[in-house]
Amino acid sequence: MTDTSTTTTAPKQGDRPNGLSTREQGLQSKQGSTSIADTVVSKIAGIAAKDVSGVYALGGSASRALGAVRERIPGGRVNHSQGVSVEVGEMQAAVDLDMIAEYGVAIADLAGSVRRNVITSIERMTGLQVTEVNISVADVHLPEDDQDDDAGSAPRVQ
């Protein structure tokens, strides 16, 4: 009697037909290649970072001031890339973020959450491998900072 059972193993990443991983196959194929602009990755990273609870804003004070002016101009838009710089290669991306944390948030935990969300979002949407996400916390936003802004907007004369 002969044994007719066979065992199969799942293909490893290097065992793909053309030697490329699934991610690489999406960006390069026989039909052509796909390139992703730095601005695309930058916007994804900015939105992903702002989605994390405890992030007050992205960017330093100068870039935030410029962004506030830009938003007030008719037709001006929110700059989702503010405080984000990226380097994008053919298969990989590296991200640098400048952010302002809400007061009271554990900054190390916040940075870890931001890093995870940015990596997950970029890799899922672009297929690029994120090699690093460097985070610089430039400031801490205090609740009374909002009260100062509201007081300054009241008319001085009636």
Per DSSP, what share of the residues sits in E-state strands of 2 or more residues? 15-25%
The CATH architecture category of one domain equals 2-Layer Sandwich
**Class of one domain in CATH?**
Alpha Beta
Q: Can you summarize the main beta sheet?
A: 4 strands, mixed
Q: Tell me the overall shape.
A: elongated
Order of helices and strands: HEEHEHEEHEH
The low-confidence parts are 6-22
Q: Which structural category do the helix and sheet elements fall into?
A: alpha+beta
DSSP E strands, number: 6
| CATH topology descriptor of one domain | Alpha-Beta Plaits
Q: What do we call the CATH homologous superfamily of one domain?
A: Cation efflux protein, cytoplasmic domain
SSE layout and pairings?
Layout: H1 22-27, E1 28-29, E2 32-33, H2 38-50, E3 55-58, H3 61-72, E4 84-88, E5 92-102, H4 107-126, E6 129-141, H5 143-152
Helix pairs in contact: 2-4
Protein name: Stress protein, Gls24 family
Biased composition (Polar residues): 1-11, 19-33
Organism: Paractinoplanes rishiriensis
